[in-house]
Specification:
alpha+beta; five-stranded antiparallel β-sheet; 7 strands; transmembrane helix; DUF3592; membrane; transmembrane
């Protein structure tokens, strides 16, 4: 690959990662604004990360030779919707922080149109994931742009 194009990869990836972070922030704000809040309880956790493959509803297998996601788990919450349906769902994020202990009572925010789309109100990962995406994206963009200018001039 020509060096002219190679040096542009980091800033382009940075912009894409930043856009993903902004989309996560917007999605979270929309759910927080329009979602229904109900009491719930953490009933378990599920592994998340590139190193896992979902094989059935609650069964995940670690991909051999992969260490990613090894200690990352998302909480699984049980709650009752405002129309009385009992749901078990998990947010699309996880962490390796032990704040998701079973039996912990939480406030669940769910999408009334898709009750399986949930967030735990006040959970650190609601902010941490998007901030990391935006921060890393901006870092890649700035450093990649500086390196690009240095190489191309």
């Amino acid at each position: 690959m020509d060096d002219t194009y190679a040096v542009l990869i980091a800033p382009i990836v940075g912009v894409i990662v930043t856009i993903v972070g902004v989309a996560l922030v917007r999605s979270g704000r929309q759910l927080k604004r329009d979602g229904h809040r109900v009491p719930g309880v953490i009933v378990g956790s599920r592994p998340v990360g590139i190193g896992y493959v979902r094989v059935s509803k609650n069964v995940y297998l670690k991909v051999r030779g992969s260490s990613s996601g090894a200690n990352t788990h998302a909480p699984v919450v049980r709650f009752r919707t405002l129309d009385g349906r009992q749901m078990t769902a998990s947010p699309g994020y996880g962490s390796n922080v032990a704040i998701n202990r079973e039996g912990k009572e939480v406030t669940v925010i769910y999408d009334p149109d898709k009750p399986e789309r949930v967030r735990i109100d006040g959970h650190i990962d609601n902010v941490l994931g998007p901030v990391l995406f935006i921060g890393l994206g901006l870092l890649f963009t700035v450093i990649g742009t500086l390196v690009s200018f240095a190489v191309l001039t």
